Amino acid sequence: MPVKPARSAAAAPSSYDKLVALVLQGGGALGSYQAGVYEALADTRYLPDWVAGISIGAINAAIIAGNEPNDRVPRLRDFWETITAPSSHWKLLPGALFDELNRHAGALSALAFGQPGFFERWDSVAWYFCGFPPSYYDTAPLRPTLERLVDFDRINAGRTRLSVGAVNVRTGNMTYFDSEEIEIRPEHVMASCALPPGFPAVEIDGETYWDGGLVSNTPLQYVLSYYPRRSRLAFQVDLFPARGPQPRTIDEVLEREKEIRYSSRTRMGTDQFRAMHDIRHNLNTLLEALPDGLKATPAAQFLKEIACVTTMDIAQVIYRPDSLQGSQKDYEFSRATMERRWLQGIADARKVLAAAPWLEPAPPQTGVRVFDVLRDLRAASPMRLD
Question: What stretches of 32-144 adopt beta strand conformation (E)?
């Protein structure tokens, strides 16, 4: 939808009554962009009552839901500074001239040694005596990090709803661990991050789980389809852009392939939800116009169960860097790169909030509106990557 003239983010009317959800995608080291987006939201009236995430999005979501509003940005900062602490194994070179070299060094350091407070290489002695484990790394360091930064009692008290997605290894089915339904513990968040073969599956109540991104990299459909539905504004923060330039090198091919693989699932899920919810919304109007005799028929009663009067607005905030970052970008955890992504998240979210297209009246019979303010602004700019 076209972008209206910018307005102040503080101009959101106090009468705005839609609930707000924050939906966070997976993407490893790219997740500091999501933290920046939340920092921008934290200064507005659009604080989410429901935060959902997958993979790195699950960690960010748990930190947000598991802290009081004033503590969330400092806790996010603590997490990202912990896992991007400069490595003692690999010294980075100062200056912009060495940016590309430092990015490669940061990625190689993660592969060789892991990241503090997040994951580490399995002990080689244990390998020798116990055999090779079913993953390259151990995520045991993540548990104390989560226990330090997330108040799980707050989450389980229902202060802010948290949902994290994982895949049941045995059945292959997507599972959402939802604080509305179960008690959330650190292992539920860890399960959502257990991307094979890098990370080991996490056992919960006799079942094992892998990263939810294997099936769907965004929990948008789960949040907006959850019954009973409520009209919502959902900020969907994606870490992989759908559009990009023609690759020229093998590294650019690998980067582009990863972007297409993850962004296509997000687009497909968003498109499917929009089509289905528009049907629900229009069914309600149609059923109201039926004669009483038809309303009582089994077919009409069946359709009544599907119909819905809620309206949904989806504000997409998609990470679109101004330059290629390489196929290693989702495991390149250098501090400088983390900071750049965080700052871009703040800047991008402020642009979306300033435009606030969801405050405009919706066309009749529209169940879902999807806004991509950043895409529209980018299309209007002569300087763009894609």
Answer: 50-54, 114-115, 119-121, 137-138
Find all residues with CB under 8 Å of 13, minimum gap 6, and list them.
359
The tens digit of pLDDT for each residue in 41-78 reads 998 999 999 999 999 999 999 999 999 999 999 999 99
∠ CA 282-238-47, nearest 5°, is 75
Over residues 183-192, the mean pLDDT reads 98
Distance from the Cα of residue 33 to its chain's centroid: 10
Tokens 């879902």 — which residue? 368
Residue 265 backbone dihedrals phi, psi, to 5 degrees: -65, -40
Count, residues in the chain: 386
pLDDT for position 105: 73
CB atoms within 10 A of CB 271: 12
Say whether 67 sits in a helix, a strand or coil: coil
- Which helix or strand (DSSP H or E) is residue 48 part of? none
Mean pLDDT (whole number) for 246-265: 90
Distances in Å between the Cα of 162 and the Cα atoms of 51, 154, 217, 229 are: 5, 10, 16, 16
Average model confidence (pLDDT) across the chain: 88
Q: What is the 3-class SS of 293-305, one letter each residue?
A: HHHCCHHHHHHHH
Q: How many CB atoms lie within 10 A of CB 225?
A: 15
Rg (CA), the chain: 22
Contact between 214 and 260 (Cβ < 8 Å): no
Helices first, then strands: H and E counts in the chain:
14, 12
For residue 192, give the nearest of 64, 55, 63, 66 by alpha carbon: 55
Express each pLDDT in 90-106 by its tens digit: 555 555 545 667 667 77
